[in-house]
């Protein structure tokens, strides 16, 4: 997996850490933030509730994997109105490049990221997903505590006025 870590840095991630022996806890208290009042994506795409399935479904998917690579993009915020959406898109485009170029072949992966999928200009939801094999799932929808993940990886993660931290977790099943 060291090669994948190097590739992640080459693509432009700020940090990349291999995590082994994972047993992810999908927490209802975090999934609760995924609701129509709290998130504009709820009910509007396949990677957020209800399209992504129940928390139990998400937990079952995630816990088929016992290792992964935690990818982090850290951006300095400038001006009075930072482009959070644009910075998140950059992070997820970087993730897509990583997956397309380095996680192909015999490797079984599940990509989880900040903010969810950005592959299509507009999600087809509720019509069938047009890219189901490569969509990027939402860490929040899976109820995964990003702070705990970063703590496990010994990475800084906080909410600050001068920096933003975007996280992706590429879960891997087959030996590399």
Main-sheet strand order equals: 1-2-5-3-4
Cα shape: globular
Class inferred from helices and paired strands = alpha+beta
End-to-end Cα distance? 6 Å
Number of helices: 5
Q: Give the low-pLDDT segments.
A: none
Q: Give the overall pLDDT as a whole number.
A: 90
H/E series: HEHHEHEEHE
Q: How many individual β-strands?
A: 5
Beta-strand share of residues: 15-25%
Using the CA coordinates, give the radius of gyration. 15 Å
User: Considering DSSP H and I runs of 4 or more, what fraction of the residues is helical?
Assistant: 25-40%
Task: Summarize the biggest pleated sheet.
Answer: 5 strands, mixed
Whole-number count of domains: 1
Explain how this protein is built.
With 176 residues, this protein is an alpha+beta fold. The chain has one domain (2-172). Helices cover 27% and strands 19% of the residues. A five-stranded mixed sheet has the order 1-2-5-3-4, with helices on both faces. The chain is globular and about 40 Å long. The mean pLDDT is 90.
Summarize the topology:
Elements: H1 2-11, E1 15-20, H2 28-31, H3 55-62, E2 67-76, H4 84-102, E3 109-113, E4 137-138, H5 146-152, E5 163-172
Parallel strand pairs: 3-4
Antiparallel strand pairs: 1-2, 2-5, 3-5
Helix pairs in contact: 1-4
Briefly characterize the structure:
By secondary structure, this protein is an alpha+beta fold.
């Amino acid at each position: 997996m060291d090669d994948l870590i190097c590739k992640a840095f080459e693509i432009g991630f700020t940090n990349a850490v291999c995590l082994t022996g994972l047993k992810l806890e999908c927490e209802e208290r975090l999934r609760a933030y995924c609701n129509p009042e709290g998130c504009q994506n709820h009910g509007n795409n396949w990677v957020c509730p209800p399209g992504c399935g129940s928390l139990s479904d998400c937990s079952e998917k995630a816990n088929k994997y016992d290792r992964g690579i935690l990818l982090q993009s850290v951006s300095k915020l400038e001006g009075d109105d930072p482009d959070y959406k644009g910075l998140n898109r950059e992070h997820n485009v970087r993730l897509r490049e990583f997956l397309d170029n380095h996680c192909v072949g015999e490797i079984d992966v599940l990509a989880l990221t900040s903010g969810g999928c950005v592959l299509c200009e507009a999600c087809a939801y509720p019509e069938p997903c047009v890219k189901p094999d490569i969509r990027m799932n939402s860490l929040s929808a899976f109820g995964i505590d990003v702070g705990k993940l970063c703590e496990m990886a010994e990475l800084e993660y906080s909410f600050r006025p001068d920096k933003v931290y975007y996280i992706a977790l590429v879960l891997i099943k087959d030996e590399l």
